[in-house]
Design brief:
15 helices, globular, 4 strands, two-stranded antiparallel ribbon, mainly alpha
Length: 393
C-alpha cells in the first residue's frame, strides 16, 4: 500500500491534537488499518434483526422516532465502500463476512416501502431516501465485483441495483434536473436542486453506466447542467438552485464542501476544470475552521455560513478526491497538508465522528478512510518533511 518513505512523513504530524506528546504518530497503513477495524466493530443489528448487518448514520432527523431507512442503507453502504476499498480484503475473512451481511441487508431493501419511488408514497418534503438509492447503488456495484457472492445473492444484488437506478431516474427533479433531500411537496413539481446530493448521485449514474447498466445520456447531461447552474464566477457553488444564481463569494466558507463535490462529479463526467478544482481545494484549507466549529455540535444549518455537522467529513472526502484529480505534480504537498488536517479531528480510539451520536462514527471513519485511499498515490510520492521538535506543553 503506502511506501516506507511515507512513514517519516507521518512523523511530521505529531503536532496533531490526536497524537499525545511523546507518542509515535501512526503510519498511513496504520491509520487505514485501525479505521477498518473500528468500522467493522461498529456493525450493528437493525430493528428486529437477528444478525449485525448495518452501519446506520445517526443524525437529528427521525421517521416515527427511528433512524430513517435512507440513513440506514446509505450509512451501511458508505461503510461498506470503505471496507471494500481498503487493502487486505482477500485475506480478511471476518471483514468479508461483515460485508456479505451488509450486502444482504442493502440488497434486501428493494421491498422497503420507505425507499419506494412510487409517487403515491414519495411525495416530497424532507426526505433522505435518495441517499440510500445513490450510495446503495454504488456499494452493490462494487461489492459484486469485489466479493464472491453466491448466485442467489448476486441475482438479488443485480435486482436491487436496478431498483436503485430506477429510483434515481424517477426521483430526478423535473425540468431542473438533479436531486434534493428537502424538495417541495409533489414529486412531479420542479424545485430547487441540491449539489450536495446531486454530485454523488451523478457519480452513481456514471458507475452504473460503466458497469453496463442502461443510463440515458440525457439524464447524465441534465445532471451535469444542474450542477453547472449552481456555480458562480468566483468559484462559489450555491446551496441549491432552479435558475441562474447570484454569486455569493462571501459564503464560500460554508460552501467549500459542495464546491469540491461539484467539481469532482463534473470532472468524472468529462467536464474537468482544474482552476475550479484548485480553488475548491484552496478554499477547503483556508476555511476549514468553519467546518471544525460545527463538528460534534448540536443543530444543523447554523449562521453565518449554514454549516451543519454532516458537512464535515463529506467535505473532507471530496477535498481529497479533488486533490487526486489535479495534475500529478501538484498533488503531493496538498495530500500531505490534507492528512495533517484530517488528523486534527481523529479521536483517541482511531476513529472519526462528525456528530454527538456514537453510531455516526462508522460513517465518519469510512469517509476518512476513503479520503486517505484516494490520496495513496500522491502520498506515496510525497517528499518526507523534517519532523518537528517534540512538544513540551
Amino acid at each position: 500500500m503506502f511506501t516506507a518513505s511515507v512513514v517519516s512523513f507521518i512523523l511530521a504530524l505529531q503536532a496533531a491534537p490526536s497524537v499525545a506528546a511523546g507518542d509515535a504518530a501512526p503510519t498511513l497503513n496504520e491509520l487505514v488499518r485501525i479505521g477498518v477495524e473500528r468500522i467493522a466493530a461498529m456493525q450493528s443489528k437493525g430493528p428486529g434483526a437477528d444478525v449485525a448487518a448495518e452501519w446506520p448514520y445517526e443524525g437529528v432527523y427521525r421517521v416515527a422516532n427511528d433512524i430513517p431507512y435512507g440513513y440506514r442503507v446509505g450509512g451501511t453502504s458508505i461503510a461498506g465502500l470503505a471496507l471494500l476499498a481498503a487493502p487486505g480484503l482477500e485475506n480478511d475473512a471476518p471483514r468479508k463476512e461483515a460485508l456479505c451481511r451488509a450486502v444482504e441487508f442493502v440488497a434486501g431493501s428493494e421491498t422497503e416501502p420507505l425507499l419506494s419511488f412510487d409517487p403515491s408514497v414519495y411525495r416530497g418534503g424532507y426526505d433522505v431516501r435518495n441517499w440510500a438509492h445513490c450510495y446503495g447503488l454504488r456499494f452493490l456495484l462494487r461489492a459484486k465485483s469485489a466479493l464472491q457472492l453466491t448466485p442467489e445473492l448476486a441475482e438479488k444484488v443485480d435486482g436491487c441495483a436496478r431498483f436503485f437506478l430506477e429510483a434515481l431516474k424517477k426521483t430526478e427533479i423535473p425540468t431542473v434536473g438533479g436531486w434534493q433531500y428537502a424538495r417541495n411537496p409533489g414529486i412531479e413539481n420542479a424545485c430547487s436542486m441540491s449539489p450536495f446530493m446531486t454530485a454523488p448521485c451523478l457519480e452513481a449514474l456514471l458507475e452504473a453506466k460503466a458497469a453496463g447498466f442502461a443510463v440515458e445520456p440525457e439524464l447524465i447531461a441534465r445532471s451535469v447542467h444542474a450542477l453547472e447552474m449552481c456555480r458562480g464566477e468566483s468559484g462559489f457553488v450555491a446551496y441549491g438552485t432552479e435558475k441562474e444564481i447570484r454569486d455569493q463569494a462571501s459564503q464560500i466558507p460554508g460552501a467549500m464542501g459542495r464546491m469540491c463535490a461539484t467539481e469532482v462529479a463534473l470532472a468524472k463526467a468529462g467536464k474537468q476544470d482544474n482552476a475550479r478544482l484548485r480553488f475548491a481545494v484552496e478554499s477547503f484549507f483556508e476555511h476549514w475552521l468553519e467546518l471544525e466549529k460545527r463538528r460534534k455540535k448540536q443543530g444543523t444549518h447554523v449562521a453565518p455560513y449554514g454549516v451543519a455537522p454532516y458537512y464535515f467529513f463529506y467535505a473532507h472526502l471530496y477535498a481529497a478526491s479533488a486533490i487526486a484529480l489535479l495534475p500529478e505534480a501538484e498533488q503531493p504537498p496538498l495530500a500531505t497538508r490534507f492528512v495533517s488536517v484530517l488528523l486534527k479531528s481523529r479521536d483517541a480510539d482511531g476513529s472519526w465522528n462528525d456528530r454527538v451520536f456514537a453510531r455516526s462514527a462508522a460513517y465518519s471513519t469510512a469517509m476518512s478512510v476513503l479520503a486517505l485511499l484516494d490520496l495513496e498515490p500522491a502520498l506515496s510520492s510525497a517528499p518526507a518533511p523534517v519532523a518537528p521538535a517534540a512538544r513540551t506543553e
